[in-house]
């Protein structure tokens, strides 16, 4: 069972990147004005552009998105600090609750407000991979993945590359892209149920994490991803 725990925890970055890509695509396509629910680098760039054009109302939207994402991460970290062993499951269950709330409110609120809700959930989701604040793994950091792919390819050319590490970064980037493709496909086929696949996956992850931690109560926590 310990090997199953390690396997699932090592799989989590790919699952969470897939979810983040899906939610980002759904939010972006719904809103159609360049606001991402989890890709904060893109939102930061847009905020800077809007400020340079003195478009304060549009810049305020991006500022709000960035602030809500930070609050989501802060909320997830508070859960992690208080939940200890079961923090990953509690964080993912909380993300599921946020998605349920977004689905319910979709009929009553403009989608910009729904994107704010999704952004809060995606900020919180990052903490499911938290070991310590110094060893956290940020999701949707596509630039970092691509830079590392380039570095590892350069090392491979001179005979020093780590193929396993290279494949890891390729798969991390691919998980994000696959999630975005999934979100785009959902929006073309069943837009009225656009958030249900992400909800199903976060719920599955939460249940699995609770089960894994419950069956490994005697093992140290936070020793692996």
Automatic annotation (TrEMBL):
Keywords: Membrane, Transmembrane, Transmembrane helix. Signal peptide: none annotated. The chain crosses the membrane at residues 59-81, 93-118, 138-158, 170-187, 193-212. InterPro entries: DUF1275 (IPR010699). This is YoaK family protein.
């Amino acid at each position: 069972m310990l090997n199953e725990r390690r396997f699932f925890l090592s799989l989590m970055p790919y699952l969470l990147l897939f979810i983040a890509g899906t939610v980002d695509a759904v939010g972006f396509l719904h809103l159609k004005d360049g606001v991402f629910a989890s890709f904060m680098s893109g939102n930061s760039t847009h905020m800077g552009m809007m400020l340079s054009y003195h478009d304060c109302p549009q810049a305020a939207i991006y500022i709000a998105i960035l602030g809500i994402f930070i609050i989501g991460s802060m909320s997830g970290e508070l859960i992690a600090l208080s939940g200890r062993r079961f923090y990953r499951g509690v964080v993912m269950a909380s993300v599921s609750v946020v998605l349920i709330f977004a689905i319910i409110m979709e009929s009553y609120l403009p989608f910009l407000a729904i994107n704010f809700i999704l952004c809060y959930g995606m900020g919180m989701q990052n903490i499911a991979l938290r070991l310590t604040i110094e060893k956290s793994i940020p999701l949707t950091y596509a630039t970092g993945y691509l830079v590392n792919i380039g570095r590892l390819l350069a090392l491979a050319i001179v005979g020093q590359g780590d193929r396993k590490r290279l494949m890891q970064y390729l798969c991390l980037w691919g998980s994000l892209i696959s999630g975005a493709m999934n979100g785009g496909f959902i929006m073309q086929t069943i837009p009225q149920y656009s958030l249900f696949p992400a909800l199903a996956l976060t719920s599955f992850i939460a249940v699995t994490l609770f089960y894994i931690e419950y069956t490994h109560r005697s093992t140290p926590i936070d020793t692996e991803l």
